[in-house]
Design brief:
With about 190 residues, this protein is mainly β. The protein contains 2 helices and 10 strands; from the N terminus they run H-E-E-E-E-E-E-E-E-E-H-E.
Length: about 190
Protein backbone atom coordinates (compact mmCIF):
# COMPACT_ATOMS: atom_id res chain seq x y z
CA UNK A 1 0.00 0.00 0.00
CA UNK A 2 1.32 3.42 -0.91
CA UNK A 3 1.49 5.91 1.99
CA UNK A 4 1.12 9.63 1.49
CA UNK A 5 2.59 12.20 3.83
CA UNK A 6 -0.07 13.94 5.93
CA UNK A 7 0.87 17.38 4.51
CA UNK A 8 0.09 16.38 0.90
CA UNK A 9 -3.30 14.89 1.87
CA UNK A 10 -4.19 18.08 3.70
CA UNK A 11 -3.31 20.13 0.62
CA UNK A 12 -5.55 17.98 -1.61
CA UNK A 13 -8.49 18.15 0.81
CA UNK A 14 -8.15 21.92 1.27
CA UNK A 15 -7.81 22.62 -2.48
CA UNK A 16 -10.88 20.48 -3.29
CA UNK A 17 -12.95 22.06 -0.56
CA UNK A 18 -12.28 25.54 -1.96
CA UNK A 19 -13.85 24.69 -5.35
CA UNK A 20 -17.63 24.83 -5.83
CA UNK A 21 -19.07 21.35 -6.48
CA UNK A 22 -20.40 22.36 -9.90
CA UNK A 23 -16.87 22.89 -11.19
CA UNK A 24 -15.65 19.36 -10.59
CA UNK A 25 -16.48 17.11 -13.54
CA UNK A 26 -15.16 13.78 -14.77
CA UNK A 27 -13.70 15.31 -17.92
CA UNK A 28 -12.09 18.20 -16.04
CA UNK A 29 -14.37 20.72 -17.77
CA UNK A 30 -16.28 23.51 -16.14
CA UNK A 31 -19.92 22.76 -15.64
CA UNK A 32 -22.80 25.05 -16.52
CA UNK A 33 -23.41 26.02 -12.92
CA UNK A 34 -25.53 23.00 -12.02
CA UNK A 35 -24.23 21.38 -8.89
CA UNK A 36 -23.86 17.66 -9.26
CA UNK A 37 -21.42 15.09 -8.02
CA UNK A 38 -19.76 12.46 -10.11
CA UNK A 39 -18.77 9.40 -8.16
CA UNK A 40 -15.28 8.22 -8.86
CA UNK A 41 -11.75 7.90 -7.56
CA UNK A 42 -8.32 9.36 -8.15
CA UNK A 43 -5.93 7.03 -9.93
CA UNK A 44 -2.90 6.80 -7.63
CA UNK A 45 -0.58 6.01 -10.55
CA UNK A 46 -1.51 8.91 -12.83
CA UNK A 47 -3.27 11.30 -10.48
CA UNK A 48 -6.27 11.48 -12.84
CA UNK A 49 -9.87 11.39 -11.70
CA UNK A 50 -11.64 8.23 -12.92
CA UNK A 51 -15.45 8.15 -12.81
CA UNK A 52 -17.05 4.92 -11.62
CA UNK A 53 -18.48 2.85 -14.47
CA UNK A 54 -22.21 3.13 -14.82
CA UNK A 55 -24.00 -0.07 -15.68
CA UNK A 56 -26.80 0.77 -18.06
CA UNK A 57 -29.13 -2.19 -18.56
CA UNK A 58 -29.89 -3.14 -22.15
CA UNK A 59 -33.27 -2.13 -23.41
CA UNK A 60 -35.79 -4.87 -22.89
CA UNK A 61 -36.72 -6.02 -26.35
CA UNK A 62 -39.22 -8.77 -27.05
CA UNK A 63 -37.63 -11.82 -28.68
CA UNK A 64 -38.18 -12.44 -32.37
CA UNK A 65 -40.20 -15.64 -32.43
CA UNK A 66 -41.86 -17.68 -35.09
CA UNK A 67 -41.37 -20.58 -37.44
CA UNK A 68 -39.54 -20.51 -40.75
CA UNK A 69 -40.90 -23.11 -43.15
CA UNK A 70 -38.97 -24.46 -46.12
CA UNK A 71 -40.76 -26.60 -48.71
CA UNK A 72 -38.59 -28.62 -51.10
CA UNK A 73 -40.17 -29.75 -54.38
CA UNK A 74 -37.96 -32.64 -55.47
CA UNK A 75 -37.74 -34.20 -58.93
CA UNK A 76 -36.35 -37.73 -58.58
CA UNK A 77 -33.97 -38.70 -61.41
CA UNK A 78 -32.30 -41.26 -59.13
CA UNK A 79 -34.54 -44.24 -58.33
CA UNK A 80 -35.47 -44.57 -54.67
CA UNK A 81 -34.71 -48.20 -53.80
CA UNK A 82 -36.93 -50.22 -51.48
CA UNK A 83 -36.33 -49.19 -47.86
CA UNK A 84 -34.67 -45.91 -48.84
CA UNK A 85 -36.11 -42.52 -47.88
CA UNK A 86 -35.85 -38.95 -49.13
CA UNK A 87 -34.48 -36.89 -46.27
CA UNK A 88 -34.36 -33.07 -46.01
CA UNK A 89 -32.66 -30.76 -43.55
CA UNK A 90 -32.36 -26.99 -43.24
CA UNK A 91 -30.01 -24.76 -41.28
CA UNK A 92 -30.44 -21.08 -40.37
CA UNK A 93 -27.98 -18.56 -38.98
CA UNK A 94 -29.40 -15.30 -37.62
CA UNK A 95 -26.84 -12.71 -36.56
CA UNK A 96 -26.95 -9.17 -35.23
CA UNK A 97 -23.90 -6.89 -35.10
CA UNK A 98 -23.53 -3.29 -34.00
CA UNK A 99 -20.57 -1.16 -32.93
CA UNK A 100 -20.41 -2.76 -29.48
CA UNK A 101 -21.74 -6.31 -29.68
CA UNK A 102 -22.57 -9.30 -31.79
CA UNK A 103 -25.19 -12.03 -31.26
CA UNK A 104 -25.49 -15.19 -33.38
CA UNK A 105 -28.14 -17.94 -33.37
CA UNK A 106 -27.90 -21.20 -35.29
CA UNK A 107 -30.99 -23.33 -35.89
CA UNK A 108 -31.58 -26.60 -37.75
CA UNK A 109 -34.37 -29.07 -38.42
CA UNK A 110 -35.05 -32.06 -40.66
CA UNK A 111 -37.86 -34.26 -41.95
CA UNK A 112 -38.63 -37.10 -44.35
CA UNK A 113 -40.30 -36.38 -47.70
CA UNK A 114 -43.51 -37.77 -49.09
CA UNK A 115 -42.61 -39.64 -52.27
CA UNK A 116 -45.06 -40.05 -55.16
CA UNK A 117 -43.63 -41.66 -58.30
CA UNK A 118 -40.77 -39.46 -59.58
CA UNK A 119 -41.50 -36.52 -57.27
CA UNK A 120 -41.19 -35.87 -53.58
CA UNK A 121 -42.26 -33.05 -51.30
CA UNK A 122 -40.42 -32.28 -48.11
CA UNK A 123 -41.40 -29.60 -45.58
CA UNK A 124 -39.00 -28.51 -42.85
CA UNK A 125 -40.25 -26.32 -40.00
CA UNK A 126 -37.67 -24.36 -37.99
CA UNK A 127 -39.16 -22.79 -34.86
CA UNK A 128 -37.05 -20.00 -33.37
CA UNK A 129 -36.80 -17.47 -30.56
CA UNK A 130 -33.99 -14.93 -30.97
CA UNK A 131 -33.18 -12.28 -28.36
CA UNK A 132 -31.29 -9.36 -29.90
CA UNK A 133 -30.46 -5.90 -28.48
CA UNK A 134 -32.61 -2.91 -29.39
CA UNK A 135 -32.37 -2.06 -33.09
CA UNK A 136 -30.23 0.93 -34.00
CA UNK A 137 -29.60 2.73 -37.27
CA UNK A 138 -26.08 1.29 -37.38
CA UNK A 139 -26.86 -2.36 -36.73
CA UNK A 140 -26.37 -5.08 -39.31
CA UNK A 141 -28.73 -8.02 -39.30
CA UNK A 142 -28.10 -11.15 -41.31
CA UNK A 143 -30.27 -14.19 -42.01
CA UNK A 144 -28.75 -17.01 -44.03
CA UNK A 145 -30.05 -20.50 -44.59
CA UNK A 146 -29.12 -23.62 -46.47
CA UNK A 147 -30.72 -26.97 -47.15
CA UNK A 148 -29.71 -30.53 -47.94
CA UNK A 149 -31.91 -33.08 -49.70
CA UNK A 150 -30.73 -36.69 -49.89
CA UNK A 151 -31.79 -40.22 -50.66
CA UNK A 152 -30.74 -42.33 -47.70
CA UNK A 153 -31.07 -45.83 -46.33
CA UNK A 154 -32.11 -45.22 -42.71
CA UNK A 155 -31.59 -48.89 -41.81
CA UNK A 156 -28.07 -49.19 -43.24
CA UNK A 157 -25.15 -50.29 -41.15
CA UNK A 158 -22.65 -47.54 -42.02
CA UNK A 159 -19.71 -49.94 -42.07
CA UNK A 160 -21.40 -52.49 -44.35
CA UNK A 161 -23.77 -50.61 -46.66
CA UNK A 162 -24.10 -47.36 -48.49
CA UNK A 163 -26.03 -44.99 -46.21
CA UNK A 164 -26.24 -42.03 -48.63
CA UNK A 165 -27.34 -42.76 -52.20
CA UNK A 166 -27.57 -39.18 -53.55
CA UNK A 167 -27.64 -35.65 -52.13
CA UNK A 168 -27.98 -32.02 -53.15
CA UNK A 169 -27.36 -28.88 -51.08
CA UNK A 170 -27.66 -25.12 -51.57
CA UNK A 171 -28.76 -21.87 -49.92
CA UNK A 172 -32.39 -20.80 -49.74
CA UNK A 173 -32.04 -17.38 -48.08
CA UNK A 174 -29.30 -14.76 -47.74
CA UNK A 175 -30.44 -11.38 -46.37
CA UNK A 176 -28.24 -8.69 -44.86
CA UNK A 177 -29.08 -5.15 -43.81
CA UNK A 178 -30.91 -3.10 -41.24
CA UNK A 179 -34.22 -4.43 -39.90
CA UNK A 180 -33.97 -7.72 -41.84
CA UNK A 181 -35.72 -9.82 -39.18
CA UNK A 182 -38.85 -7.67 -39.24
CA UNK A 183 -39.19 -7.88 -43.02
CA UNK A 184 -37.92 -11.40 -43.83
CA UNK A 185 -40.48 -13.87 -45.16
CA UNK A 186 -41.35 -16.87 -42.98
CA UNK A 187 -41.93 -19.33 -45.85
CA UNK A 188 -39.52 -20.39 -48.57
CA UNK A 189 -39.80 -22.84 -51.46
CA UNK A 190 -37.05 -24.44 -53.56
CA UNK A 191 -36.87 -26.87 -56.48
CA UNK A 192 -34.37 -29.70 -56.19
CA UNK A 193 -33.33 -32.54 -58.49
CA UNK A 194 -31.97 -35.77 -57.02
Amino acid sequence: MRKFPFASLTTVVISLSLLPLGQITAAGQESTGKKHLILGYQDTQTGQFRPLDRVVPEATVAPITGTITLTLHITLKTPVAAGYKVYCSAELVASYTNTTSSVVYSESASSLATVSGTTATCTVHIPHSWQFPATTAKDIESLTGGYTAAIINPNANLAAELFLARSSASDFVSLTGNNVFATAPSTFSVNVTL
